[in-house]
Structures are given as structure tokens and as C-alpha cells.
Amino acid sequence: MSTTKLSDIKYSILDLAPVVQGGTPGTSFKSSLEVAQLAEKVGYTRYWFAEHHNMISVASSATSILIGYVAGGTSKIRVGSGGIMLPNHAPLIVAEQFGTLESLYPGRIDLGLGRAPGTDQLTALAIRGENFNAVQNFPKDILRLQTFFSADNANSKVRANPGEGLDIPIWVLGSSTDSAKVAAAMGLPYAFASHFAPTYFREAIKIYRDNFRPSDQLKEPYVISCINVIAADTDPEAERLATSMKQMFLGVVTGRRQLLPPPVKDMDAIWSPYEEEAVMQMLAYSFVGSAETIKNKLGSFIEETGVDEVMATSPIFDHQSRMYSVKLFADVIRKSAYAPLNQ
């Protein structure tokens, strides 16, 4: 058990720009900006977008563009990637894109890097072409990025302009123990995708902490856990809202993808016992319920894991219900009484 308390942690948001049934990517982006503006108001630390491809319900494929859109519509919250799938991109291009973002919004940009393709293998082949096995270069590509950002690269024949000499924090993202080893060896902060890949979470953060080597960027290990959060006034209402998330993950399990669907009364009419088990295993780190329920469950989670920050993702069909969940979750951590959204 750690000594970390719920009130000690930072709280942030991971956004996949979900496209709901009846909506479009355009309406999704506008919703994301409204959520980010609310998150800034109620004390969230950062707002990250995740790179995914060939998924009709996820509109965050052009991640750096969305980062600029939200950073331009907010004033102080950190905005970044959770993450950029580095094997999909040349490090120089990433350095230039994030150097541009940091130049536009100084002191507010985070660069989270993942090694997965963020899609299926066929789409990954379409993205990477002859660089299909580029995942093997992940640690070297991080070093290349750090070089491009370094002022010491000024005499190189290949330079990132903008990007060179800028302080852009790099994060390593992961869903396995491999990424934990990379983050520890390089002395970088570590964000784990426990919202959909809980199996190796505790093992990975132990490996990261046990093997962490201080760096110029970070002196002590720092862990973000990404979790699913659906908060409402009552447990039954939150559970009802959560059926949209369960249907979304059912699509992942079965391969039958769809736009984020509205809630349903009874999931048993939709999934088989095997499918339910598979979905609920993926959703092990989900915090669904009233403010009191989430407070108790999250408090125990923080004490058990000692994470430094939680990053909430909330696949909720109704936009106002999503906004309400964002506010309630902030209230849980701030231990303050709920205030109406218009105050």
C-alpha cells in the first residue's frame, strides 16, 4: 500500500473524439473543445488525444491538428498526445509538428509516444509501407526526437525548425511491460493504457519504478494510469450510461465496430456470457457510479497503486451527460460539493 491519497493526485482527460450515432467527426470535435474548456475550468491538468486509424467511432486520427484546435480554444490546460504512434511517423516530422505547436502555445504541449500502430495490421501496413517493422526502432526514434529538440543539434545537417531548442516533455505510453522498460531506461514519465489493457498494469509500473534511471527531464518515476470514468448522480444512472461504453468494447471483441451507440436497458440482450466476460476483463479499471461510489473505489485504487496522476476517458453518448461526468469527477478529487455547470 502506498501513502498516496486521492487528494494528492493530478487528474486529466484522454479523448478519442468519439463519434456518436447520429453525429459526425465535425460535431465530435466541437464537443471535445467544450469538454476541454470545462476541464480547464475545473482543474484538470492536461487534455490528450489518442491516435487511432480506420475506426469509424474514433475521429482523433490527425492527432496534432486536434491538439492545435483545442490548445487554441483554451488558455492554460496542457494539451498533448496520448499518444502519437511513433512507428507511424518519421521523428523529424513529429519534431516539426510539435515544435510548431509549442511555438504557438508555449509551455502547454505534451508529446506522448506509443509503439503500437493504433489500428489493425492491414491499416498499419497502409500507413507504414516498407517501414512496417518500425516498432523495433521505438527507443532509437525517441532518441532521434530528443536530438531534434536539443539546442546541441544546431550544427547538424538535419534540423527541426521549429522544434530545436524547445522544451517539449516526452512521455512513453504503453500497455505492456516492454514500454515500461523503455520509459525506465530513458528516465521518462510513463502513462499506462489501463483503461483497455489492465492485465500487465501493476507489473509494468513496478518494473518502471524498480528500474527507473533519472534523466534531465525527470528525477523520479512518474506514473499516469488511464482509466474509464462514468459519473452521474446515482449508481443506476451511471451504469445505464456505461452501457454505451460496454457496447463499444463489445465491438472491439467481436470485430463489429459501430458509431458510439446510445445506452440500453439490458446488456444481456446484446452480449453472450463469453462476450461479457471478455469485455469486463478489458474494463477492469473502470470507475462507474455516483460521486460517493467513485470516491471510494478511486481512493482504494490510488492507495494500492500509488500512481501520480489519473487520466479519465469517458465514452458517454449524450454530450451533456459527458460534461456532467467530467465535472463530477473533478469534484470527487477536489473533495468539493457539486456546483451547477453554469456557475
Automatic annotation (TrEMBL):
Signal peptide positions on this chain: none
Residues in Luciferase-like domain copies: 17-309
InterPro entries listed in its UniProt record: Bact_Lucif_Oxidored (IPR050766), CmoO-like (IPR019949), Luciferase-like_dom (IPR011251), Luciferase-like_sf (IPR036661)
A matching Pfam family: Bac_luciferase
GO annotations of cellular component type: cytosol
Gene Ontology MF annotations: oxidoreductase activity, acting on paired donors, with incorporation or reduction of molecular oxygen
Family annotation (PANTHER family): LUCIFERASE-LIKE MONOOXYGENASE
Assigned protein family: To bacterial alkanal monooxygenase alpha and beta chains.
NCBIfam families: oxido_grp_1
Name by which UniProt lists this protein: Luciferase-like monooxygenase
